[in-house]
Amino acid sequence: MVSETEIEKLCKLADLSLTSEEKKNTKTHLEVVLNAFRELQEVDTTGVEPMYQIKDSIDFRKDVPSNQLKSEKFLKNVCSEVDNYIEISQVVAND
User: Which residues of the chain have pLDDT under 50?
Assistant: First the structure.
């Protein structure tokens, strides 16, 4: 069970300002997630080899380009572009 104090602490750590209704919903969702992890902890994994890499057990698709969108087509929808790059406003200060 997640306490109201823990929700308040999470909000403070994440710098979130939530309404009481949002806190209530967050508490409910967090309890669902934590309960799922509790269920996983109860699974007997005796004799199961740890898996360190999943890449060998999954058949990844080949990374082959297909139906590529031409830059002219998507650049016509942007506000500003320079030399085939999308130009945006500065998002990081130059301190």
Answer: none
